[in-house]
Specification:
The structure holds two protein chains of two kinds.
Chain A: H1 2-7, H2 12-34, H3 39-61, H4 69-76, H5 80-103
Chain B: H1 2-6, H2 10-19, H3 29-58, H4 66-69, E1 72-74, E2 77-79, H5 82-106, H6 110-140, H7 154-186, H8 195-220
Antiparallel strand pairs in B: 1-2
The chains are: A mainly alpha, B mainly alpha.
Organism (chain A): Aliikangiella coralliicola
Subcellular location (chain A): Cell membrane
GO cellular component, one term (chain A): plasma membrane
């Protein structure tokens, strides 16, 4: 108990900085839409800002950066399964789309 | 003795934690369970977003321009995606106040913890209110889970399912926050310790985290 209590003693300024950073990053991702950036640049920028924000929230706000590796791996490694699912579903969706183009062109 | 194994860095430490004759994780039970719950919740939201990707990629009809669908007209000015941007900033701010509440809780400052948790809950409630506004606007425009006058029908289903489930999480979080905040104020945790505030915080940050992904994939993509 005392160990965890001691670990949580970060100065408030850390949170304020992260908060500010999240604000700026959200502003950036909003700008991507506002200035109508399109194509691969748009998707790349969206993903970069998204992962930066997610990383900040998980590492600092959720304190994962200060947890032990055993816990970090337990939480982060299972998400690899999601990447596999995304890849499989992307292939499947492509196939569905092509099938629809062939058979439902009149729609 | 245990200290030396606990401080072993890298993989050696991981192996020690899993193999040694002791508890694997050195965190409070409730906190570990909250993390496991959040991991399962991650999978739920990932499945929603993946199915959204699948229907969007395979839709032959045009996908609606979210930037226009969620635009607001303020003082004659047409601003794209404004409502969603405001909602994003509100949720991030609530995450900030929550992080500070956790900090003050461990310092034993009950009053500040209570106020900050209540502020977090208020911001969360504002978020849900704006989402209700957004929903009623879209329903008014004729968007339904099964149809959508602006293009692909799957847009309606994805929108209501994903934002609805997220909104439900925010609502539950607001209630959770209010309950715990009240107990903090009453001194309920004076003897138990304030891990509970951090656990509540984990849940709340997760709700913010999910929104980051919804914002990127559903609204911006």
């Amino acid at each position: 108990m005392t160990a965890t209590t001691a670990e949580q003693q970060h100065p408030i300024s850390v949170y304020l900085k992260v908060w500010l950073l999240l604000f700026v990053l959200s502003g950036f991702s909003y700008m991507v839409d506002f200035y109508q950036v399109q194509g691969y640049l748009r998707w790349t920028l969206i993903l970069i800002f998204m992962f930066l924000k997610a990383g900040l929230i998980i590492a600092i706000f959720m304190h994962l950066a200060w947890e032990k590796l055993a816990l970090i791996y337990t939480i982060l490694l299972p998400t690899i399964a999601i990447l596999v699912l995304i890849a499989l579903m992307a292939i499947e969706a492509d196939y569905t789309f092509l099938t629809r183009l062939i058979y439902f062109r009149f729609v | 003795m245990t200290n030396s194994t606990e401080q072993a860095p890298g993989w050696k430490g991981v192996v020690n934690d899993w193999a040694a004759d002791k508890e694997t994780f050195n965190v409070p039970w409730g906190k570990l369970m909250m993390w496991i719950f959040l991991l399962s919740d991650t999978f739920i939201f990932s499945i929603f977003l993946t199915s959204y990707m699948t229907v969007r990629m395979s839709a032959t009809a045009e996908w609606p321009m979210t930037s226009e669908v969620f635009a607001l007209t303020i003082a004659g000015q047409h601003v794209p995606l404004l409502l969603i941007a405001i909602m994003t900033f509100i949720l991030i701010t609530s995450s900030g106040t929550m992080a500070m509440a956790v900090n003050y809780a461990y310092r034993g400052d009950r009053k500040k913890t209570f106020i900050l948790m209540l502020a977090t809950a208020a911001l969360g409630a504002t978020f849900v209110g704006m989402q209700a506004f957004e929903w009623s606007k879209l329903i008014e425009d004729g968007v339904r889970p099964w149809e959508n006058p602006m293009g692909a029908e799957q847009f309606g289903a994805s929108f209501f399912m994903i934002t609805g489930f997220h909104g439900m999480h925010v609502t539950a979080g607001v209630i959770y926050l209010i309950v715990i905040a009240n107990r903090v104020r009453n001194g309920f945790y004076e003897k138990k310790g304030y891990d509970i505030v951090e656990i509540t915080g984990l849940y709340w940050h997760f709700v913010d985290l999910v929104w980051v992904f919804i914002f990127a994939f559903f609204y911006l993509w």
